[in-house]
Every structure is written in structure tokens, then in C-alpha cells.
Design goal:
mainly alpha, globular
């Protein structure tokens, strides 16, 4: 028999990209620390369950307000209700940063005129975003976004 969720629907296997999650896990730890594959799998499963928990509570908050679309404030309220209030400020800051970056990308024409990033630009952008996430997680300062006029690091370094 397949597992059921709290409303009696059959749960589909939800997962996160394993390679991305493994990279995030490794980047959050000192270089001399290794993580067993079973522990990585467990951490990824915990992340999936956490997302399910937050999503479910966000939906409840949304329903209590007679809304049909979960908004960022519903997610923040869900964090509070579930006892994760200490993360609200950091989550909101990450959300605002994402919003600003999305607006910057749209304004610069990367999304609106069909121009694509080169593989090198995409890799640089991904590394910058990982660095920002690490800085936020470690309470450090966020690395400012490079403008197109600044030189980009080489892939061969």
C-alpha cells in the first residue's frame, strides 16, 4: 500500500536534485569533513520533508485567510506557526534578494529579449549565488552582484 498524506491522497515521490543538494551540503562543511552517502540521502530526505511541512502549513494559513494563492507572507506565517520564527528575518531577506535579482535580470533584457547567458556566465552566476547562500547561512556578508562591465573570473582557475 502506498503512503498517504494528511488529506488521504497518495503521496508522490518528491525529491530534490541530488547533485545540487550534495554540492550544497559539501559547501556548508569544512573541507576536511566527509559525509557518508547514507547521511547525504538522509539530509536530502529531511529537506524534502521540511519543504512538505512548510508548504502544507502555508496552505493552511492561506485557507484561513480565504485566499486561493499562497503568497510569501503565508510562508513566513507558516514558519512562525511551526516554531521557526527565528528564521523569518533571514528567509525574508533571501526572498527580497531573489526579487531584486529577478527584477534586475528582467530589466537587463536577459529574459525579455531572448538573449542567453553563455555557459561560462551561467557558471559564474551559479557560483556567485552559492557564495551568497553560504554567506547568509554563516551570518557573513553577501557578495555584491558583479555588473556586466566588471571582469568575470576565468573557468580555468
Amino acid at each position: 500500500m502506498e503512503p498517504m498524506d494528511i488529506v488521504g491522497k497518495i503521496k508522490e515521490d518528491a525529491s530534490l536534485p541530488k547533485a545540487t543538494m550534495t554540492k550544497i551540503i559539501k559547501e556548508m562543511l569544512p573541507p576536511d569533513v566527509r559525509v557518508a552517502r547514507d547521511a547525504q540521502d538522509l539530509l536530502i530526505e529531511c529537506c524534502v520533508e521540511f519543504i512538505n511541512l512548510i508548504s502544507s502549513e502555508s496552505n493552511e494559513v492561506c485557507n484561513r485567510e480565504d485566499k486561493r494563492t499562497i503568497a510569501p507572507e503565508h510562508v513566513l506565517k507558516a514558519l512562525e506557526v511551526l516554531g521557526f520564527g527565528e528564521y523569518i528575518e533571514e528567509v525574508y531577506a533571501a526572498y527580497e534578494q531573489h526579487r531584486l535579482e529577478t527584477m534586475d535580470t528582467m530589466r537587463s533584457g536577459k529574459l525579455s529579449n531572448g538573449a542567453e547567458m553563455t555557459e561560462e556566465e551561467a557558471l559564474v552566476e551559479q557560483q556567485r549565488m552559492f557564495a551568497e547562500a553560504r554567506a547568509r547561512m554563516n551570518g557573513g556578508t553577501v557578495v555584491p552582484k558583479q555588473s556586466d562591465s566588471e571582469t568575470r573570473p576565468s573557468l580555468s582557475s
